[in-house]
Amino acid sequence: MTQQDYFGNGQWLTGTSELNQPFYILRSKFTLRSFTKARLTVLGLGFFHCYINGKRVSDDLFLPLFTDFEPRNNWPREEIVTGHRIYVPGYDVTDLLEEGENVIAVHFGGGWYAVNDERFGLPKAIWNLTVQTDDGDISFCSSRQDKISESYIPDYNFTTNAYDRHDFETQDLRKYEKDVFEKSYDDSAWANAIPAKPLDTRYLSTDCPADRLREDLSITKLSETDGISLYDTGKNCSALPYFRILAAEDETVTVDFYEALNADGTPDETTHHWQQFIIISDGQETETCPLFTWFAFRYFTITGNAVPVRVSMLCTDIEVSSAFKCDNEALNWLYEAYITTQLSNMHTGIPSDCPHLERRGYTGDGQLTCHAAMNLLNAQTFYQKWIADISDCQDTLTGHVQYTAPYTRCGGGPGGWGCAIIEVPYQYYKHYGDKQFLIAMYDQMLRYFDYLEAKSVNALVVSDKEGAWCLGDWCPPEAVVLPAPFVNNYFYIKCLYRMIEIAKLIGHTEDIGLFEKRIGERKAAIMTAYFNKWDGNFLGNVQGANAFAVDIGIGDHRTYPELVKRYSKLEEYDTGIFGTDILTRVLFEKGDGELAAKLMASSKAHSFEGMRRTGATTLWEYWPEANYHRSLNHPMFGAVTAYLFDYILGIDQPKDSSNYDSLVIAPVVPSILNFAEGYRTLPCGKVSVKWEKEDTAVKFCITLPQGVTAQFHYGDVEKELQSTENVLYI
What we know:
By secondary structure, the protein is an alpha+beta fold. Helices cover 24% and strands 28% of the residues. Helix 4 packs parallel to helix 6 and helix 9 packs antiparallel against helix 10 (512-530). The longest helix has 23 residues, at 484-506. The radius of gyration is 27 Å and the shape is globular. The mean pLDDT is 96.
């Protein structure tokens, strides 16, 4: 659709041609006599708040959703991405309007569009109001008659690659006129708005949910030293903090945010991540919060005369559609920590790597965790939107898929990152039974394979873009040992297997022969380069190397037993983000769920229990006691959380099924657990499983939705389960 379809004769407006003003307030007056219904479409770039007669039109936050809005000058360098789009929010505003004079005001700027070092363009806004009356529809829209003024936010940074200047917002309350959004405000001295360049993009609607406040956290004051007060919210997460400013005129209040404390109870500066909220007081008691950024933290300090009012968790408005509990605290913690971490990294329609340092929709992190997110959250419309971002970020010249979707400068690799263009649509199909993206993106998937072929030597993927990183695995506890070509060829082969399934599903069986040929060539190349004939191992069997190999069907009769032998002795992960997931899943799939569960519940250093012991409430970017230390809010290691449900509870579907049209309940009962229970909400309804060890048997209680049956497997027992409640002793 086009701009006119959504905004009629509305114009994009801004306030200046200069680059240094990040925020504006736009106001317009219009008069109504009588009306029955009214609908508003509105956009402000980068983010916006919209008011009618002083009231917010919605509780939605951080709109519009982040997309590749329009072409930028030379970004990404020497590439032309596939597409550009922007999603237009629309609201029924009938209850906000009054007969007589009305005022619409839009506070806008910042965000991904207008301020980071890869800006798309100047801050700008557009709106259109369609009003139904007894005499027909009438419209009001943005025009150069609208009034505009600089906002009271003079300094701001949302995200950048320069680590010395990260996430902050400054509010100068001396410039904040508290009735600026009201009808009564006199804007006659304001300048008229300046028409801005229209976007070169597709205008679309979406039902992907916006960000909203989720829950209020506790606030505990821990200390006050030299005028600096330290507070604890009890939970590390993305949040919006609200403060009552009590400072005298011209005094500054500074709030700094941290993920952790040092052993002596002081804030750990390495977890500050340059997160800061600054308020310059006008001398009046005022309540305020950050308007155009969020922060990710557990602890915060206030320097200056202010007190916290509340702290509210913030994320995309997505329902948690699962629950899990067992008698192992490490596994219980893993489930809860993954939920908090994943939600904290769901903002503006993208799954991010971290909610503070980078905030980017990394295709590596996103494809790795999408199965878990689709398992445990009601995330279908969210991933519909993000798959479109992945599609948009492919280079039309070479087939290269960016490391982030939407594109921002970043790093990654040609396998674990770019293969998201196959893996995420595939997982979407498996979970929701919808082939639309498999069909629409099939040619793009083939185009990406052309890219991998072009970046290969001797049938190994050996490079990515010139001058860019070429990662394989990432974030093991010690330096990465696995060569990038080994890992990237693994992903290429894995995706070729996916493509055989996809080709059968959507009627492209003529391509299967080519896929099988490439699989054979790529497997042979890995065997030649990395297989140790003398002991059956790949690359010394470290960092999950044998698991990568077994998962794509290479090695010999010794390879898998050597894998089991190593990790039975090691009793902890030595793996990176991909290796952890692959190792755990391969063990479950091969019948060694006992060992897989022990690794997930390990109490050694490189473990989830190691995170829990520190008091963490979210998953970390690196394992405890690793060689590196950075973000404490990274979902990527949480991909294994899906296996609490796929295997320990055993809620799954046959390999050739999708949308859970058929169900298999096949619990794994490891020795480290005495009971486990939980549920998943599937398209067919809520499926609950509970098992508990008794004196001479295991008791299984399985509840299925009305009209749904399932095949039960445990040991040698196979049984058809009926609708509603099933109780078995085995």
